[in-house]
Design a protein that fits this description.
Blueprint lengths: L1 E11 L3 H14 L4 E11 L5 H8 L7 E6 L5 H11 L4 E5 L7 H8 L7 E6 L6 H18 L10 E5 H7 L9 H11 L4 E6 L14 H21 L12
Parallel strand pairs: 1-2, 1-4, 2-3, 5-7
Antiparallel strand pairs: 4-6, 5-6
């Protein structure tokens, strides 16, 4: 069991049919994972009643739920970034709100915090259309070339980290699809340990899949280059105290 509070960030846009089962699973998993927990739902300008369903699902644990509302759609990773900024736990995690990952697999990742500081999943078999896998592969190659990051599937939407990692990575400068690249880059440059585990990726059961359009992809590549330039000019690793992994 984690020796402090866990903050779980859940980005969601029009996920009324997925957020309820996800939060139910969280309520059965998180009490055995950490001493205490909070769930931060970032409602990315949903036009359905995603937030209302979340509150109803957490009715008996209302004090453990925080809802951040975007008036305009910002995208999944900007929603994650806003959730991370609001997180107050000693450990911080995030999981996509579309139900394609399971909270119980977050518990598997947490076991690696005994010897790592950031633990991320990678999708052994991606339950998405083929073109999304191709886009992801191209993006990962670009990250390897620009950032020197040799990890696989960096945008996999399930991760957990120690508070010290998030503090060292702050402020988060990246926009759009750059968040994960920035997180890996800063974690690596600060000397923290990174581990990965394969996780199942499940087909979307409800709702509409977003992403995969050409213009946002081209914008993400442009932002990836721009962020790397900013990091080289504006950011240096800050010293941090040794981490006890007992």
């Amino acid at each position: 069991m984690l020796d402090g509070q866990l903050s779980l960030v859940v980005p969601a846009h029009n996920e009324r049919d997925n957020v309820g089962p996800l939060l139910h699973e969280a309520l059965t998993t998180l009490p055995g994972l950490a001493l205490s927990f909070e769930i931060i739902l970032v409602d990315d300008a949903s036009t359905d009643d995603t937030a209302a369903v979340a509150r109803a699902s957490m009715a008996h644990h209302a004090d453990a739920l925080r809802v951040i509302r975007h008036d305009r759609k910002a995208g999944a990773l900007l929603s994650v970034a806003d959730g991370l900024r609001a997180a107050g736990g000693s450990y911080v995690a995030y999981i996509d709100g579309d139900g394609q990952f399971r909270v119980q697999d977050l518990a598997r990742l947490a076991t690696r915090l005994a010897d790592a500081d950031l633990v991320a999943g990678w999708r052994a078999r991606r339950a998405d259309p083929w073109f999304r896998s191709v886009i992801s592969q191209v993006f990962n190659v670009a990250v390897r070339v620009l950032y020197g990051i040799r990890y696989r599937d960096i945008d996999c939407g399930i991760k957990i980290m120690r508070r010290a990692v998030l503090d060292a990575a702050s402020p988060l400068l990246g926009r759009s699809a750059c968040l994960n690249a920035e997180l890996y880059f800063k974690t690596q440059r600060c000397g923290f340990r990174i581990a990965q585990l394969s996780v199942p990726h499940y087909p979307r059961r409800a709702g509409v899949r977003s992403g995969g359009r050409l213009i946002p992809i081209l914008r993400a590549v442009k932002e990836l280059v721009g962020l790397r330039w900013r990091l080289s000019r504006e950011w240096r690793p800050a010293p941090h105290p040794p981490i006890s992994r007992t």
